[in-house]
Structure prediction request, 519 residues.
Amino acid sequence: MRTMSVADRTRSGVIAEFPDAAAGTAAKPAAFETRELSVFYGKKQALKGINLDIDKGEVTALIGPSGCGKSTYIRCLNRMNDPIPGCRIEGKVLLDGMDVYAADIDPVELRARVGMVFQKPNPFPKSVWENVAYGPRIHGLAATRAELNDIVERSLQRAALFDEVKDRLQEPGTSLSGGQQQRLCIARALAVDPDVILMDEPCSALDPIATAKIEELIDELSGNYTIVIVTHSMQQAARVSDMTAFFHLGDLVETGPTDTIFTTPRDERTEGYITGRFG
Amino acid sequence: MAQQHIVKAFDDQLNALDAKIAEMGGLAESMLADAVDALSKRDAELAAEVVAGDRKLDQLEEEVNTLAMRLLALRQPTAGDLRAVIAALKISSDLERAGDLAKNVAKRTITIAKAPPVTPVTGIVNLGALVQGRIHTAIDAFVARDAKLAMDVWSCDEEVDQLHTSLFRELLTYMMEDPRNITPCAHLLFVAKNIERIGDHITNVAERIVFLVRGKLPERERHKEDESPYTEVRPFKKEG
Prediction:
């Protein structure tokens, strides 16, 4: 179904190329491995040689003050920085050992495998049903209308939205509430059967109840999907994530299990940020 | 962490919590000092004041609980701040128990003061001074966030245990010498035990301070020196 092949870019090959990466990879398989990842916007360096593994099936939260590089980092994972003029990327991003920036990778295929949800819900100006059906249709995932219906229903159910919209499938996606629209966007990402879902501040435009529903959904999806979430709410990072990575001024300062980061962080900058001591 | 919070009210609330703990520590220390002083001077009036003073300590503990609960609910503290709130909760309950034990010492002092003096209480006074000094140092360590000083307090509980064991032997001997000593000495045994228990609570406080500062408890096993549970003193056999 997917055209991308892991082929000769095996995980062991990666480790041979980056011997340091072998340490710490034994415990959990990594979905993403980033090695010495640097990003430049023109002359400005936004990320400075990031080495970070994103564990498979886990929820990883990226936190840090504005301009720290967390959004730049997450956008590297599915090549969303590609269209930005003057943007230059060094280092490696590996998805299951496959180089995401290799010449033979189709970014459109990559983004189906690595879905993304944004800060502001952005449903297409089409019906609820069309919003979800669009991806599987263009990727040829359904042979018949019935199959497509199944995918739409299953995706809406996984996004915990189906019961609320089952009688409104032909209404415009934009007629739903903000929280419902965000879950519709998650359903749209799920419809093409991704491995990874990237969420860039998915709740910052939502009220607390809608936020809680998204957080509950993240919890349900973890395990089956690898989730990477950028959030400005440290409480949200603490609530939803297994692992937390703290970025500051383009550096990855500290990463570790979320409970450790929020109770006994090692780095003073992490402590300063999560306790609200610098902005 | 020396740096201030962006939200100043957060600092104010954490400082208020620290101040309450320091106040509790000061009160527990003076309760113990007064109780032991009352014992050595056979001053029932002073002892009665100690008993009454325990209410203030209980009230302070409630205030710490209220402040800590409010901080947890409204500020959602993390990292060092979270450890400070948890430490305050646990330390306050240890200090409140220490106050209860000092009150017990004072209550028995009232009873002891009614009977004629039979045995010297120097050993108890020494034990009291030692434990009182540990309360003082522990609170200094808490206020200064000084884990090394807290470790000193933590380590010297052995000395308290050794003194307690020797007091236990001494009191048993007095009781064997003359059955009329049994009543006051039995009370003094409890007094010694109460003071030794205060020492244990201060050891807990010291552990909490180490955790607050370093994020982990002291690593090595503390050597326990209280031999009183295994101590026996046999009566002399009469010749002939």
In short: Chain B has seven helices and no strands. Residues 176 and 235 of chain B are 7 Å apart (CA to CA).
